[in-house]
């Protein structure tokens, strides 16, 4: 009897489950054995029995949830045999420690779970690697043709140009605590901003961890004591709290792929939308599918129907998984 892809990996209420390996990938609720692609809280949840992830993702989960986030944990160093499958972790280019997970059964198709991934060079994490596979499971966060992300260094240049124009106004940039904050700092440094950057307290521990991992972020100061720092980074949720009132006439900016949708930015009072994303945009998404040329594409969260239609038009077998519970890093 032939092995079907669903016999190797299938969607369940708890998330993707591998029956021959007895584990879930990025489960939505506590399970006995979990493989985690990266540390964002919509993929990495606490309370599992055993967790397998990259060493950096395990460290990040400990920072976010405490050392007892799981009953046991193991770093994914090289291919590992689990039940009747072999699993291996490969860089995804999304955030520090992020990985694609390849499942190789004894017989049957090789399945690649990409997690969240990005092909644009990112100075704070390893670059995405193309991994041959038979079934490619891809996100579709920006799975519509309107999403075409500009050069992130050019967007950082727009930020510095605004700071040069509005010298008396502090610039507050909304960034997620894991990945986007550190990338925004690194992009500002690459664009020539050598002065101290003020960071909200919610960003401190993860910034410290990146520095400990050898990523140079330059001089950082607490946003509670910004001194002469004119660039301030904070979680987007801070913009809706009294915290923001300590800054006089700030320029509110937000670094996200969603800033492509200008109406979304205007509704939130964002004066300087910066289109900087840690996900693939539409051209990268479709180019990846063409490059890997899998036998079949499975689509998870995001604009599933848009990508599904593109696959149909290009005669690429595809199906939506309709998994719920995944989004950009929740506040």
From TrEMBL:
<dbReference type="InterPro" id="IPR036866">
    <property type="entry name" value="RibonucZ/Hydroxyglut_hydro"/>
</dbReference>
<dbReference type="InterPro" id="IPR050698">
    <property type="entry name" value="MBL"/>
</dbReference>
<dbReference type="InterPro" id="IPR026360">
    <property type="entry name" value="Xnuc_lig_assoc"/>
</dbReference>
<protein>
    <submittedName>
        <fullName>Putative mRNA 3-end processing factor</fullName>
    </submittedName>
</protein>
<dbReference type="GO" id="GO:0004521">
    <property type="term" value="F:RNA endonuclease activity"/>
</dbReference>
């Amino acid at each position: 009897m032939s092995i079907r892809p669903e016999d190797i990996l299938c969607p369940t209420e708890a998330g993707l489950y591998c029956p021959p390996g007895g584990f879930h990938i990025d489960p939505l609720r506590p399970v006995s054995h979990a493989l985690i692609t990266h540390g964002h809280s919509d993929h990495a949840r606490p309370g599992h029995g055993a967790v397998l992830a990259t060493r950096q993702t395990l460290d990040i989960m400990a920072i976010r949830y405490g050392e007892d986030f799981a009953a046991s944990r193991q770093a994914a160093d090289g291919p590992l045999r689990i039940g009747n499958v072999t699993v291996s972790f490969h860089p995804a280019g999304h955030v520090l420690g992020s990985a694609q997970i390849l499942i190789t059964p004894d017989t049957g198709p090789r399945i690649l779970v990409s997690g969240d991934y990005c092909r644009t060079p990112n100075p704070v994490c390893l670059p995405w690697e193309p991994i041959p596979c038979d079934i490619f499971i891809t996100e579709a966060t920006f799975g519509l043709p309107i999403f075409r992300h500009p050069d992130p260094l050019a967007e950082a240049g727009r930020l510095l140009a605004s700071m040069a124009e509005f010298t008396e106004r502090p610039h507050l940039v909304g960034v997620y605590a894991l990945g986007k904050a550190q990338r925004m700092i690194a992009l500002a440094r690459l664009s020539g901003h050598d002065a101290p950057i003020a960071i909200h307290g919610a960003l401190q521990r993860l910034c410290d961890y990146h520095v400990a991992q050898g990523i140079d972020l330059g001089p950082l100061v607490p946003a509670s004591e910004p001194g002469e720092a004119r660039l301030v980074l904070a979680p987007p949720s801070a913009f809706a709290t009294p915290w923001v009132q300590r800054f006089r006439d700030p320029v509110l900016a937000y670094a996200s792929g969603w800033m492509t949708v200008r109406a979304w930015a205007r509704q939130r009072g964002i004066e300087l939308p910066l289109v900087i994303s840690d996900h693939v945009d539409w051209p990268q998404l479709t180019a990846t599918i063409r490059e890997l040329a899998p036998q079949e594409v499975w689509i998870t969260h995001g604009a599933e129907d848009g990508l599904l239609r593109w696959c149909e038009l290009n005669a690429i077998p595809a199906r939506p998984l309709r998994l719920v519970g995944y989004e950009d890093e929740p506040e």
